[in-house]
Amino acid sequence: MLKKTVLAITLGASLIFTGSVGLAAPPAGGKGVTQKAQNQNTIPYYVDESKLPFESPKGIETDRYWGVHKGAGYRIEVPKNWNGELVLYAHGFRGTGLELTVSNPRIRGNLLEQGYAWAASSYSTNGYDVAQGVKDTHALGSLFNGKVGKPSRTYITGHSMGGHITAVLAEQYSNSYDGALPMCGVTGDTELFDFFTDYNVVAQSLSGIAKEDQQTILDAEYVGGTVPLIKDKLGLDGNLNDEGQKLKSVTMNLTGGQRPLFDTAFVTYKDFLFNQLPPQGDYGVAAGNVVNTTDSVYQFDDDMSTLSPEEKALNEAVVRVVSDPQTKQQGLTGVPKVNGTHKIPMVSLHTVGDLFVPFHMQQIHVERTEANGNGDILVTRVIRDVEHCGFNTTEESEAFTDLTKWVEEGNKPEGDDILNPKVVADEHFGTEFTRGYRAYDPEKYHTHE
């Protein structure tokens, strides 16, 4: 069974999970003080309707609709040669600001050229509110039926938190959709937040901070005082020392094991992850603390069957966080679980070096899906990139096209074997579906041009 794998967050130019890299500012408060969450229903979110209008792409004639529905902004676009099918797009995490905004799908042009209509919602809340994103995206599909017409098929897709929304939609409303394409999705749900805490408490322990003094809530003191100390103690600002190498090894094993591009990934995310310690364990939307690190296992090597004396010492020296029982609710509450119970064809994309929403999110999803006997309707593909959602439009478009062929013709597309450690560790892993090399990738000449 795959144990809790460490997760990380992306720094790329096109952040899809966060509105900005990390938290806008560390909250005030003392060590271990949980900030009180505000009820989402009481927050004065708004849509700037002047930002909703949009133009047709050059060379493609479309009908466009926009407005506000049930508190959420939306955009709908239908090509003149509409094939009768719809793609619902779910955007990623927008931070906790008050303004609600809509994103066009990155493969918008490709969809329209093939005759697909698309629609996207801002959701009626911000924050990590997957449940509301699910409800508002589903409601937008119903609105489309009234404004345009009932589609012959409807597909769902999304990035990051939107990938989480996509997977939950496929499980909660399987009868309403024909195929799903979650990309860089948080398909391990709260396991992502466990990792953020794992990374920080392991780093604290390796830097010499005693268990009783380790911090599990983000505040100004931690960011301004403790983190610089940790980085100095572990050599994170220069050459990693022995303890820094241990943090790197633990992170690799928590996030999917030995795999290509991990060295680059760790350099990219090692500082950024310190800002992902939660300011509150309920993430502003759950009934209580969702973080649970009691079953996390911290290892320096790839022998997952046993712990060395040194590994045992680390596991005993790290503070553990227990989730609140009320967060185990099922359905559309808090941070919904992805159970792997979808009933429609699904293709999932992930980059091998993502540490914002790490690769192991996809592994967890596959394990749960197979445990539920649904392995035959989930295909996973790995792209050789370290950026969160760092796919190019060719990679996304090919995945979508293969999904539609699967739905229409019954031909299941090829994917990657992501649960076999030997396959994942191979230097060529991820080249099959990568289109165009990344400059930092030593396997660039093996990838598809």
TrEMBL record:
It comes from the Bacteria. This is Uncharacterized protein. Keywords: Signal. The keyword Signal applies. Residues 1-24 form the signal peptide. The lineage of its organism: Bacteria, Bacillati, Bacillota, Bacilli, Bacillales. InterPro entries: AB_hydrolase_fold.
